[in-house]
Amino acid sequence: MKRFLIFLTLYLFSFSLFALPSRKELKELKILPRSEVFFTQTENCYELQILGIEPAKVQLDLPDLPLGTKFISSKKEEFINENGERGTQISLWFTFSESGSTHIPPLMTKINGRSYFFEFEQTYVYENPALISPVAEVIFQNPSKLENDKKSGQKILKAQTGQKISFTVMIKYAIQVLDFKCPTPKDSIFTESNRTEFAKGAQKISQFTTESKKLADFEWQILSEGTFSLPEITIGAISYNGVKKQIFLPKNIVISVSKSQNSVTHEEKNNEIFASAFTKPEEESVKAKDSLPARQEYQKIAEKSKRGLFDRLLARKFAIFAGGRVFSVPEEKTKGQNFTGGQKVRLTEQAGAWSFIECQEFSGWTKNDNIFEIK
Questions:
Q1: Between residues 231 and 358, the one the model is more confident about
Q2: Which of 66, 244, 369, 375 has the fewest CB atoms within 10 Å distance of its CB?
Q3: What is the pLDDT of residue 230?
Q4: Burial of 22 (0-12, 13-18, 19+ CB in 10 A)
């Protein structure tokens, strides 16, 4: 009799520990991902918790898995939740060969001899951080103006000479930026603003994220016609696997620049002045022979034409850079960058006390005092 009472007490005690759930409660259960992010080529875990059921009374029957999804292992164990309730926790590990949303068929589970189907919650699988490199992105202020060229696969932004093109440079899949170089494109006015702390290398990402990080804002005015690639901005960054990578802006975006109706080049102005000296009516030319003011005016026209010719010849000249600050525009108030001297540079443009120079390492405007022309 005493043994029967002991057995009855233990049975009732075990029953109280595992309060059986209702069929409705079981049908509402889902198999959930253990972590917020899944990756390719690594083990990812799903979990199912069933309250009131001990592990010995649970049997699993795995479904046929889709291509690219591989079952690794499973585990059943008893667990206790925050309220002290006991149950069974089922852990299932899978690997995925490709990125994208998961599509695993329901898991058939027998509980106390009755079959139930539990659905896997859909989640997204990202490329393994150890296998991906940082990516640079460009966000234009007016992205709707980008046109897709189906033949070339390029994205084309149309603009006019002198028009301001505003864009932001972003980076993705990088834990830290080591360097961020932004040379001035040729025949352009190019300014940078709002460089972030992350772009300066002052911040470091500790956990994986799919969000892009802002580096800086830019404003670009192209002064000549043609088709242009994005500026040759280079980013030195560390990927999630700890390797330093050199990142460039996307190559599939180009700027198609046409001549602005309101713009007149310096050369065109000189040509107009020079041509006007020979297109005046014949009688006016005869009257001007003995006119001293007219002769002085012709002299000014000749000097202006000579200066225009000099500017064109200057584009083919070279100089030695003595060192100093180089600017994106010919203004000392703007932010410049110091460079050491000794380089041979090409002179492509001149504006008063300024010259536009370019070499393999840099390009931009500098004071004429910083260069020695090679004659």
A1: 231
A2: 375
A3: 92
A4: exposed
Q: Name 158's Cβ contacts closer than 8 Å, sequence gap at least 6.
A: 145, 147, 255, 256, 257, 258
DSSP alpha helix (H) spans, the chain = 2-17, 23-27, 266-276, 282-287, 292-314
Per DSSP (E only), the strands in 173-252 are 176-181, 188-193, 213-222, 226-229, 234-238, 244-248
More confident residue, 191 or 336: 191
Rounded distance, CA 198 to CA 234, Å? 15
| Range 269-300 burial, b when 16+ CB lie within 10 A, else e | ebeeebeeeeeeeeeeeeeeeeeeeeeeeeee
The angle at the Cα of 138, spanning 132 to 139, to the nearest 5 degrees, equals: 125
Q: State in words which class domain 14-128 has.
A: mainly beta
What is the CATH class of 266-373?
A: mainly beta
Q: Model-level pTM?
A: 0.56
Using CA atoms of 35, 39, 40, 42 in order, give the dihedral in degrees to the nearest 10.
-60
Out of 2.60.40.10, 2.160.20.80, 1.10.443.10, 3.30.70.120, which CATH number does the structure's domain 132-258 have? Answer: 2.60.40.10
HSE toward the beta carbon, residue 29, CA cutoff 13 A: 23
Helix, strand, or coil (residue 36): coil
HSE toward the beta carbon, residue 206, CA cutoff 13 A: 0
Cα atoms found within 13 Å of the Cα of residue 162, Cβ hemisphere only: 7
Q: Which of 123, 134, 225, 130 is nearest to 172 (CA)?
A: 134
Fold equal for 14-128 and 132-258: yes
Tell me how far apart the alpha carbons of residues 230 and 222 are, in angstroms, rounded to a whole number: 11
Burial of 9 (0-12, 13-18, 19+ CB in 10 A): exposed
Q: How far is it, in rounded angstroms, from Cα 360 to Cα 340?
A: 13
User: pLDDT-derived band of residue 16, with 50, 70 and 90 as boundaries?
Assistant: very low
For residues 181 and 190, give the distance between their C-alpha atoms in angstroms, rounded to a whole number. Answer: 13
Residue 136 pairs in a beta bridge with: 171
CB neighbours of residue 149 within 10 Å: 12
Query: CA-to-CA distance for 136 and 177, rounded, in angstroms?
Result: 12
